[in-house]
Amino acid sequence: MYEQIILEESYATVLADSATPCIIVQLHSFANREQFKHMMNTGLEYFQTHTSPQQPWGWIADTRHMSAIHNDIQQWLAHDWNVRAYQAGLREMSIITSQNVLGQLATQQYAQLAVAQPEKYVLEPVYYPSLEEARQGVRKRTAASKAQE
């Protein structure tokens, strides 16, 4: 597995896994609004420069250690970040399930918002119990996307 660290902070690590290929966002602890936006935007910038119809990339949100996400961040994700991610070619959000209830609720809310505006975009949420299973799911998805080209 070849992983490049794009961002490493106390609250999160963002990796580019060119072998899968995907962006992996691993949350370690609570991230405030600015930190969360910085983390997501940093990953999206890398995604935008590396994904293509010939070589689509995936996105894995490793939320095992995530807690709550403030409502204004949920709204920013739904109305700004998700739109930009969709425009860049992302169609599926692979989510590794949080180990705590607040994190589970936050990812469920995100998933509802990610499919709530089909006239603008749909980022299909897919849940996985482990990072390796998420990688396998992304590999299948990107292979299927390439086959449709």
In N-to-C order, the SSE pattern is EEEHEHEHEH
Largest sheet at a glance? 6 strands, mixed
**What portion of the residues fall into strands of 2 or more residues?**
15-25%
What is the terminal separation in angstroms? Answer: 26 Å
Continuous helix count: 4
Query: Strand tally, please?
Result: 6
Order the strands across the largest sheet as they lie in space.
1-2-3-4-5-6
Shape: globular
Mean pLDDT reading: 92
Unreliable parts: none
Bin the helical content.
40-55%
| Cα-based radius of gyration, to the nearest Å | 14 Å
Tell me the structural class: alpha/beta
Characterization of this structure:
There is one protein chain. The chain has helices spanning about 35-50, 70-85, 100-115, 130-149, and strands at about 5-10, 10-15, 20-25, 60, 90-95, 125-130. The two termini are about 25 Å apart. Helix 1 packs parallel to helix 2 (about 70-85) and helix 2 (about 70-85) crosses helix 3 (about 100-115). It has a six-stranded mixed beta sheet, sandwiched between helices. It has four helices and six strands, in the order βββαβαβαβα. It is globular, with a radius of gyration of 14 Å. Helices cover about 45% and strands about 20% of the residues. By secondary structure, the chain is an alpha/beta fold.
Structure summary:
With 149 residues, the chain is of the alpha/beta class.
Salient structural properties:
6-stranded mixed β-sheet, alpha/beta, single chain, 149 residues, globular, 4 helices, 6 strands, 45% helix
